């Protein structure tokens, strides 16, 4: 099992701004970190092909993000997002596809999944999925079970890097039903790099140097994951 192709997905884009703080938009911060991460992977691992779901401020449907990963036979799918919540909420969390164990996890999935309401044929594309229905989230969270071990393996490395190497506050690895991970046929994780609704984290994440810093944590997790997976064979 070699890790040859990684797809990096900058959440949101175009008409879909994602969440926002006082001045920072999720779509811009996620893109900046995604591009920096891709560059670090390309420079550090010339044997790995990096594919982006978007490289600029464009709107990409959730189903197409997974489609890009599948079409490129990606070995890992990394989706980068920023979180929203009460202004006191802070910290990073990395999600894998799975059954949400708390209403908080469900709330994050609902917020990220509600993007489909801006898409043209969402009822056909997502099998009648209703982003406001808890039942919908439970049903389709069962799809990714084949890749859950490696998805968790990668997600745990990301949060460990954030916590121990970058000194960020980690809220841990969680599971919830994300449409963007649902159709991806490979290990995948959705990384919430911090809360734009928290003034201190917004200031941190809106800074170019700190964006490189966050990308470097994800890059080291990727490198560890790749080495570990390839050594197992």
Automatic annotation (TrEMBL):
Keyword Protease: no
Tagged with keyword Ligase: no
Reactions the enzyme catalyzes: Hydrolyzes the link between N-acetylmuramoyl residues and L-amino acid residues in certain cell-wall glycopeptides
Keywords: Hydrolase
Organism domain of life: Bacteria
SUPFAM superfamilies: Zn-dependent exopeptidases
Domain MurNAc-LAA residues, every copy: 66-223
SMART domains linked: Ami_3
PANTHER family in the record: N-ACETYLMURAMOYL-L-ALANINE AMIDASE, N-ACETYLMURAMOYL-L-ALANINE AMIDASE AMIC
The protein's name in its UniProt record: N-acetylmuramoyl-L-alanine amidase
């Amino acid at each position: 099992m070699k890790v040859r192709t990684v797809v990096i997905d900058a959440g949101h884009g175009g008409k879909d701004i994602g969440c926002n703080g006082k001045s920072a938009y999720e779509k811009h911060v996620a893109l900046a970190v995604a591009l920096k991460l891709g560059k670090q992977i390309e420079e550090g691992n010339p044997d790995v092909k990096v594919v982006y779901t978007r490289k600029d401020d464009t709107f990409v449907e959730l189903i197409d993000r997974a489609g890009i990963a599948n079409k490129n036979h990606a070995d890992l799918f990394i989706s980068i997002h920023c979180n929203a919540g009460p202004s006191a909420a802070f910290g990073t969390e990395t999600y894998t596809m799975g059954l949400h164990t708390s209403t908080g996890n469900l709330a994050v999935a609902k917020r990220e999944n509600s993007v489909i309401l801006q898409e043209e044929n969402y009822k056909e594309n997502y099998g009648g999925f209703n982003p406001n229905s808890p039942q919908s989230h439970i049903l389709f969270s069962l799809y990714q079970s084949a890749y859950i071990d490696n998805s968790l393996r990668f997600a745990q490395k990301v949060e460990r890097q954030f916590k121990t190497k970058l000194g960020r506050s980690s809220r841990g690895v969680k599971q919830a039903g994300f449409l963007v991970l649902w159709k991806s046929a490979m290990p995948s994780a959705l990384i919430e790099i911090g809360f734009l609704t928290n003034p201190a984290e917004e200031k941190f994440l809106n800074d170019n140097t700190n964006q490189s810093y966050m990308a470097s944590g994800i890059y080291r997790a990727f490198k560890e994951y790749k080495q570990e997976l390839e050594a197992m064979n």
